[in-house]
## 1
Amino acid sequence: MSMFSIFGISGSAVSAQAQRLNVVASNLANADAVAGPDGQPYKARQVLFQSQPQGPEGSAGVAVREIRQSDTPGRRTHNPAHPLADVEGYVTHSNVNPVEEMVNMISASRSYQNNVEVMNTAKSLLLKTLQMGQ
Amino acid sequence: MSTTAATPQLGIYSQALLLRAERQRLIASNMANADTPGYAAREINFGDAMREATSGSSLPPLAVTHARHQALPGSGGMVAQVGYEVATQPSLDGNSVDMDRERSKFTDNAIRYESTLRFINSHVKTMLSAIQGQ
């Protein structure tokens, strides 16, 4: 029965979107972090999705291929009074863009909801199929 | 799939149900991959697939024993030709899933699946009352 593979397909998408939400949460939590004594600020992370053949021909689920760190330079502010300022008086912040992360969060949560709805519909259709002929 | 149904109508309904389940799975796969870069949305032409499935002769389908064997059209095999959707608004990452269209197709297909189930149920009821003669 090909409808059963919907749970695998949508389940993989839900899990991938949840991972994306996790990464967004991590980015937003570190949005105001500054570089420590080692000079390495927090780098924003992005998940990369990849489709993954699943079930019979033509259908595919989603898998997270990798979590990539963004290489854009962090924001630098001049604040010599800051305890973590470097010798020139600059503080390096993380390269997280909060606006980008919020947009990412909304997109991930909408996709998550869509896939949950798909699973609910598939479930109700299968339950009705079970009652066929009664 | 050559179905040996109790009545001709039941055979048609069962083919329709299988195709609807197949299409539901494809749409679920499209929705799961709404955020995957480079994913091309898949779709089957229900009318063509149904015609293909029902116009077949009563002969059993040819056995496909090799990867390069092709099912003969009209041979009664379950041959839902999976094609690609045309993107209405192409996106930069190569993804051709239109979420609004997919959602409406998903609901539409779910309702049609359920109607087919109801047709089967009422057909079974009719047949049972004819058998029992009450």
## 2
Amino acid sequence: MTLFLLRRTAALIVTLLVATLVVFVVLEVLPGDPAAVMLGTGASEETLAALRAQLGLDRPAPERYLRWLGGMLTGDFGRSYTYDVPVAGLVAERAQVSLPLALLAIALSTAIAIPVGVFAAARRGWPADAAVMGLTQVGVAVPNFWLGLLLIVVFSVQLGWLPAGGFAGWDAGVWPALRSLLLPAVALALPQAAILARVTRSTVLETLREDYVRTARAKGLGPGKALWRHAVPNALIPVVTIMGLQFSFLLAGTIVIENVFALPGIGRLIFQSIAQRDLIVVKDVVVLLAATVVIVNFLVDVAYALLDPRLRLGSGHG
Amino acid sequence: MGSLLRSPGLILGAALTAALVGMALLSLAWTPYPPAEMNIAQRLAAPSAAHPLGTDQFGRDVLSMVMGGAWNSIVVALVAVAIGAGIGVPLGALAAARRGWVDEAVMRFNDFAFAFPALLSAVMITALAGPGAVNAIIAIGIFNIPVFARLTRGAALALWQRDFVLAARVAAKGDAAITVEHILPNLAGLLIVQATIQFALGILAEASLSYLGLGVQPPAPSWGKMLNEAQTYIYMAPRLAIFPGLAIALSVLGLNLLGDGLRDLLDPRLRRER
């Protein structure tokens, strides 16, 4: 197990380093002169030189990369060029919107998907199962941002129950803030729930065929108890893995949905930074998001190995 | 053929996919109006005989734009699948054939590529080079590479243990010859199914990117961009938000059903579980 953890951690560090290097090369070396990109074509040579000096662009690239990396490790992400505040503070402020939104979406999708998936598995081959499978097939095909628009049409335009966009802020109280996150979270959660429900159904069906479930039934346990006590807990391990793999879709979805509902989260920040050519913020946020995906997948891998000893005895990847 | 008729999902999927491709091809030769043609006098017109799906805020014919958008979606998703398969399949096959450090390097590359959802790659490319359809293709293509590499590697590793590969080895064939003559032909079915699913994901990703303004640029029609513009007029003409979204959802549904149906057809053992 220690060997597995060491190998996996080494791989994690290498992946993170390569990711930072690629982002650095793409956003700071390939543009030639990032200062020219940020200031546009009309900038004078003096302004360009001043910005280059301010950003440290007059130093060689390898030195800049190491400084940037070292800064990030100590929580110093540099200063936003447009907002003139530390990027770390900017990201922390925006995360107060993005993080609750993502968590709300995960909670909603799990709360819907697992009962629905187990229900379909228990009714396998019956019309109820076919109906659930048909609905989830549609759910997978619906783009989350379109669902967001449809929710706006129904709940904001027609019924006027919930805001069509914007964020009240946590200072306005928990309920007004949650009200602004409700439709976005539903738009994110439903397509995710469709995928998770399908996975749950097929893994529950697999565990229902296992010997231990048959033994439990032979010992006189009712079908409902055998399902909930033995089949479902074992079926949830692969479901958690799929949730980990789906994390990058959730992250991308959050960025899109924040733009649909004009929520001031990290997704909006990244697009505002592109529009303002604030390469410093773009670079930091892209690395942070990529690192989050890598770390979540690492944690899922490790959790999976802890739960399933067969895996950690294998080659350690796959 | 008998098993084909017993799969309503496969038939529906094939029909929807044929409709998508047919609509896209037709749009190259004919649309009711040129998709970019504006007619301010006819702006935000309700559906009528002249404009079956109505017109948008510039008086453009929505049906013509949906048809033109189909072509854009197909091209972006198809080229992105070609990039993913074109790079991912050889990488996966190489990792399975050579094992050892080559395998390790390919797997680490996969981990790294997985860290960049199409949206993040598109954000970086756009920050660097400005928005455009090519960005969308590259970004989605990059995301497809590890998908095909993992699938090919996993399935090829199992094939390398089989007797017919051993026989080819005994006949003194090299790794490359065995891969081309024995491994890849046996993976064709699996890869076709995955390509169908990635094609569907590509259509979804392209729509998201063009909704965000990172994909194809005006005046070329695109479903995602139509939805973005529809949002501005959501109080005046909510119906504008219906048709492009429906086109995306039906296309993705069709391709997913087609992929599932093909998988069942190629591997009947899986049918009972799905």
